[in-house]
Amino acid sequence: MDHFADRLRAAPQSRLQRGAATEALALARELAARTQRIEEPEARPREMPDAGMFAAADQITVAGRDLALVLTDPDELARALELVEEAQKRAGV
Distances in Å between the alpha carbon of 26 and those of 7, 42, 73, 78? Predict the structure, then answer.
């Protein structure tokens, strides 16, 4: 996750505009939703807002670290790492 975020921060604006930022936001939203489902299983997850393409790296960092704090199942951790890898590949960074 940190590697993906670092790559996003170093990416040119044109790469972010071509979909890398959108992919990162989608990942951040998914990680945040997973965290919320663990912390508040009865509540409907709130959607992380779009803070702009230049904030996408920070959003995945925050969402990923929040999820890491609440995960206890090794299988769920492995799946979260797969999500990050897949999103990074789709983002092309």
Answer: 16, 23, 23, 18
Amino acid at 42: E
Place of tokens 């790469």: 15
Helix axes 56-70, 2-10, angle to 10 degrees: 170
pLDDT per residue as tens digits for the range 9-66:
999 999 999 999 999 999 999 999 999 999 999 999 999 999 999 999 999 999 999 9
Q: What residues have CB less than 8 Å from 22, skipping those under 6 apart?
A: none
Q: Provide the Cα torsion 93, 57, 45, 67; round to 10°.
A: 90
Q: Is the dihedral of CA 1, 65, 47, 12 positive or negative?
A: negative
Query: Which one-letter amino acid corresponds to residue 74?
Result: P
Cα–Cα distances (Å) from 14 to 20, 28, 47, 86, in that order, read: 9, 20, 26, 21
